[in-house]
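Protein record
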Amino acid sequence: MNQLQSMRVFVKVADLGSFVGAAGALDLSTAVVTRHVADLEARLRVRLLNRTTRRLSLTESGATYLERVRHILDDLEGVEQMVVARNQEPVGTLRVVAPVVFGLHSLAPVVQSYAERYPDVMPDVTLADRHVDLVEEGFDVGIMVARQMRSASIVTRRLTTGYMTVCATPAYLEQHGTPTRPEDLLTHPCLSRPAEQGSDEKVFTGPDGEVRVRPTNAIAANNTEMLRQFALLGMGVAILPSYLIGRDLASGRLVPLLGDYHLPKIEITIAYPSRLHLPAKVRTFIDHLVAHFQQTEAQSRDPRAMTPVRSAGRSPVAGAPVYADDLPVSALPPVEGARPLRKPSRGHVAAPSPI
């Protein structure tokens, strides 16, 4: 029998846990499905499945073989799909879901530039801070912030990395003093979302290693944009994601604090249902997203962007310099000797605010 087909049959039997179920899914007879698996075992001289009257289970060798075969079949499908996709144009509705704050502050520019490049695709963006089942709810692409998704039918890919920033208004710092160490937060009202595990402990890494503090929140809120508004009103020291407050730091409305310490990074990933038969609209949007944020990261690593920047109309607060790598590229003042950014041409990936 055809070895490649036998591999496909074996994967289907393993996924469904049944010869009968695999036969129905593949439109084959149960006898043919059984024969394919038996031929594979004979060829490999090893048992891949344990069979009882009640159920099937993978042997240790079967589990190892399944994992490798799945990758081989996925790669083969990907090659065939790539060849076919060259003659396909991205068209139709593209359903995208993303967390509310990240979507509002970082997603609009990339959706706009994608829509310009592929006018036959209509982006349909949903913002939600709940768990989303991409397959069941019919989304083509999902963006996840600090959340893992494990499913055989879902593929994930790193998009970018975010950073939590401790900050406050100049007026608040003038009145209450400027924290210089994580322990100083214990004497200030703080504005941050509680950790998902139910603990408010913050873990900083600094010159002397790890520092754990449990600051007292001044107010409870389940949305970081609301916490940003409270911070701008001078209600306390805020701990907020960099993609949310870039413009506030650039304008001097907020001042970054604890420059010698950092909090754990925020991993931002793309998720989409299976790489098999990926529509051109999905493939091109994912590529566009990745290129967009890769350009952002490259610019944020540019040494020229590491010079301190004075806030417009304000003097920096003592001990709290503002660095250009915390700010949106469009908000940076000119760097002496640097060439101005060129206006992006149609379809070019514009530089978004860094995470």
Q: What stands out?
A: The chain has three domains: 3-85, 92-160+267-299, 164-263+311-331. The chain has a mean pLDDT of 79. The CA atoms of residues 105 and 244 lie 6 Å apart.
